[in-house]
Write a structure and sequence with these properties.
It is a single chain. By secondary structure, this protein is α/β, with parallel strands linked by helices. It has 2 domains: 116 residues, Aspartate Aminotransferase, domain 1 (Alpha-Beta Complex); 198 residues, Type I PLP-dependent aspartate aminotransferase-like (Major domain) (Aspartate Aminotransferase, domain 2).
């Protein structure tokens, strides 16, 4: 079977999601999930019928939440499908390229490689900002430029003026894809108002993080109507199951939005608690984070990750040397994690 697979797939190293990595414990802070397990009710009727391709109530509800027109919204199986749709719709295999700026989310490269699209890499600066000069010199054959803000795993925001400059330099050449998976934790940093000025802007969103619906697999792409219509040409006929549309619409109701905003405030308080506690420890650097996670640097990040893993505290190792990404859980989980790290550092001091 391996020999029958496409050459790109034979050589492909799959994305190691938190669930693929696994683990065994009682504190799970490795997947940037929400600790809130909210209850929803659906009657599971109409399952003998196919779903709408783009359920109207869901589209209208998210458009109202995001502050755009319904024609500017496409819903998909998580933001991950949005990434794949954009690459499939705009990149010719073996001709075009995407550009992304590590350290950042790994699925941009995996999706492109799976389809046979070249990957151009322009690393972030030491301050984890866009290297605009290098991006400009690497735009040949690039159709999509992926930018994550707040960035995963670093947690920082990309400068607004740099995003605008990137949009200007790529006009009529490439689409800038802003991954705003964590924007609900800092909505003032969204680029959504730039859609009116830049037809080459697409924005990825999700219900997995602030809305506590990672298991639902519901995401959105925001863009101008012409771009959305192109994506509708390549999306699956029935991408959103009926129960998914029902539950997502409940999450976007006035009551659902009020609950989400309350929970975001709670998680932000826990993030501040964890950041303050870790910052007091010798040899620990905690980077400012704007999502529901923190990037933390230790004297030996791999050893700290493994020690926590062995104790049943499952964190996420990072491609950044000696850094570990810690999702923000409930207060009890944050206290257990902080206590473990504090005691571990005291033991080896």
């Amino acid at each position: 079977m391996e020999k029958l697979a496409r050459k790109q797939i034979q050589a492909l190293t799959p994305y190691l999601s938190a669930r693929r990595i696994g683990g065994c414990g009682d504190v799970w802070l490795n997947a940037n999930e929400s600790p809130f397990d909210n209850e929803y009710k659906t009657n599971f009727t109409r399952l003998n019928r196919y779903s709408e391709c783009q359920p109207k109530l869901l589209i209208d509800s998210y458009a109202a939440y995001a502050g755009v027109r319904s024609e500017q919204v496409l819903t998909s199986r998580g933001a991950d499908e949005g990434i794949e749709l954009l690459i499939r719709a705009f990149c010719e295999p073996n001709e075009d390229a995407i550009l992304y700026c590590p350290p950042t989310y790994g699925m941009y490269a995996i999706s492109a490689e799976t389809i046979g699209v070249e990957r151009k890499v322009v690393p972030l600066t030491q301050e984890w900002q866009l290297d605009l000069a290098s991006i400009k010199s690497n735009l040949e054959n690039v159709k999509l430029v992926f930018v994550c803000s707040p960035n995963n795993p670093t947690g920082n925001l990309v400068k607004r003026e740099d995003i605008i400059e990137l949009l200007e330099m790529t006009q009529d050449k490439a689409i800038v894809v802003m991954d705003e998976a964590y924007i609900d934790f800092c909505p003032e940093a969204s680029t959504v108002e730039l859609l009116a000025q830049y037809p080459n802007l697409a924005i990825l969103r999700t219900l997995s993080k602030a809305f506590a619906l990672a298991g639902l697999r519901c995401g959105f792409t925001l863009a101008n109507e012409e771009l959305i219509n192109i994506l509708l040409k390549v999306i699956a006929p029935y991408p959103v199951p009926i129960p998914v549309a029902d539950i997502a619409s409940q999450a976007l109701s006035p009551e659902g939005l009020a609950r989400m905003r309350y929970q975001v405030l709670d998680l932000s308080a826990n993030r501040a608690y964890l950041q303050a506690g870790l910052s007091m420890l010798n040899g620990v650097t905690v980077y400012d984070g704007w999502g529901n996670y923190l990037l933390v640097k230790f004297s030996d990040g791999d050893a700290m990750f493994k020690a926590a893993w062995d104790t049943g505290i499952i964190l996420r190792n990072s491609p950044i040397k000696d850094c570990v990404r810690i999702s923000i859980g409930n207060r009890d989980e944050c206290e257990k994690t902080l206590s473990f790290i504090r005691n571990r550092i005291a033991e080896i001091a």
